[in-house]
Amino acid sequence: MTQSQNADLTALQDRQGAEQELFELLRIPSVSADPAHTGDMARAAGFLRDKLQALGFTARVDPTAGHPLVYAERLDAPGQPTVLIYGHYDVQPEAPLEEWVTPPFEPTVRNGRIYARGSTDDKGQAYAHVRGVELLSKAGPLPVNVKFLLEGEEEVGSPSLEAYLKDHADELKADVIVISDGSRFAPDVPTVTYGLRGLSYVEIHVQGANRDLHSGSYGGAAPNPINALCEIITRLKDDQGRITIPGFYDGVEEPTPEEREMWAKLPHSDEDFAASIGVSDLPGEQGYSTLERLWARPTLDVNGIWGGYQGEGSKTVIPAKAGAKVSMRLVPGQDPDRITRLVQDYVPTLAPQGVQVEVKALHGGQPVKVDLDSPFIQAADRALTRVYGKPAAFGRTGGSIPIVAAFRSLLGAPVLLVDFGLNEDAPHSPNESFALEDYHNGILTSAYLLQELGK
Predict the structure, then answer these.
(1) In this structure, are residues 400 and 196 in contact, taking their beta carbons and an 8 Å threshold?
(2) Which residues pair with 306 in a beta bridge?
């Protein structure tokens, strides 16, 4: 490694250029869930391919059964480690549009933040790695081999990615896979994430009569699917906040005493956390701290519910059907397929008389936990220390990236999660944003991380 590659890279940063390029990418409405944006998906993929080609990568856009993905490689360091950087260029739908202060696909800077859909999830974080490679290239030869895999279906569950990994396993071989698609613990706390919860996502469908019924003519005699659904949901947890599905907690890995001690030292306040989301209390499973419940305990939450009349005014009907979307975040020791089967077996047993209940599986993902003694984790700690002037905190996250487990099983490489965003960025919500300083620190972190991995 040359002396220049060990030097401080801040003097080489082109902050204005980095911002303008990200703004150009953010203006492309690459909404993977909406077929109307198919052309925009191709445009975003082409933008990334062209940029990586300009940086000396062999880059291409590969079709899939769904949206295309971008693969690029620059293998300039024979004998050195190979780093595969994963990200996604697709974004969530912008709705509800009326809640955006400024247009979601016209990036706007307010109070040091870029407001745009995809700014933090994941265009801003993924593009920080693109610019990180560019920054490091200014100091000399790259100290490692670098590959990029940027997909266009993460926000719809990555349905095409696993098949792509299987078909291109040899080409995608790497010593470590780097992902930045989440949040740091706090603005002044650089963080290495070493655990992700898994996911089981289902829909509960309740059917009553063969049509909507007049509530005066049939009320008191006919079954009401909405009432039945509410009863079912209420019985899925007890008064201690524990999930009642038989076998749900079998095999659950408890946080270690060392983890509990490490998390207790983090600058967390229940009062501040509650205030940040505008609530007065933080209900949950009793016997566990807030961070333990967020990071190391499984959950069950209703994400959507429907049935009956939803329009203005009144309509006195007993609906024929009702339904709910339910997600369960899972922890090490739980298998999503097994949990889904348990739910499908148990929920129908809770059905009141007169209704039929079906549980449909949607998608899921395995939980992931990384060994804190990994040399890759230590390299990330050193890189973050160089940027922030303090050692990294080590935490898990309550979210899920289902494809991470597939990376580990199909490519056989460890995954390194180094997140540049914050929860306050409001990913998936109206007025999503990304702090400019976090973007530029992400670029520096990416460059220094490649240096450290090269050592």
Answers:
(1) yes
(2) 323
